Amino acid sequence: MPAVRRLNRDGRERFRDWLQTGAPNPAPTNLLTDPNTSEGFDRPVAIDGRSFESRLELGEYLLAKLNGLPAAAIRFDEGLWDWLSLFYVNELLPPDASGRRQVKQIFRYSCELKNRLWSRHIVRMSWMALKDHGQAARVMLAFPIDKQPETLEQIGGQQEAFGACPVVGLADQLYWDSERNTLKRGAQGKKDGTPRRLVRFIRQLRRTYDPPEMTVDELLKTLPREFERWKSSYSKRAQASSDAHSSPNTFS
Question: Which residues pair with 40 in a beta bridge?
Answer without folding.
Answer: 5
